[in-house]
Amino acid sequence: MPARFLAGAPTRLYLNDTFVGSLFKDLGLGRPANQDKPGFSIEISPEQVDQAAADVIFYSLYGDAAKSDQGKITEGALWKNLDAVRSGRVFRVDDNLWMLGIGYTGAGLILDETRKDLTTATPGG
After folding, report:
1. Alpha-carbon distance 121 to 125, whole Å?
2. What DSSP string describes the chain?
3. What pLDDT does residue 46 have?
4. 75-121, pLDDT tens digit by residue?
5. β-bridge pairing 90-92 and 41-44
6. pTM
7. Which of 5, 89, 94, 100 could potentially form a cystine with 70 if both were Cys, beta carbons 3.0 to 4.6 Å apart?
């Protein structure tokens, strides 16, 4: 599940009609029903972080972290209770690549990073 913390805006969970969402769809990576649908994104508040529930979370930050909900979310109990967080399957990714890097080169780099993260993650943290 791709998520993006944005300075001055709500956190976004990216859906299938985004570049990275389409890559995940093409790979056949299972996603929760609320995220596996057409559209660009779902905007969530820190109180709605349960909508980010997934087996794996890839997240990025655009802009100043202090002006985003990143700290409120990642330091909160709701985030810490997500299965992906508890099992150590949360990965910070490069926003420029994952959210702005489209095309064959971007896809190849994202796929390489995804494979590396998914094969080296330690279940249970």
Report:
1. 8
2. -EEEEETTS-EEEE-TTSHHHHHHHHHT----TTTSSSSSEEEE-GGGGGGG--S-EEEEEES-GGGSSHHHHHTSHHHHTSHHHHTT-EEE--HHHHHH--SHHHHHHHHHHHHHHHHH--TT-
3. 94
4. 999 999 999 999 999 999 999 999 987 889 999 999 999 999 988 76
5. unpaired
6. 0.89
7. 5
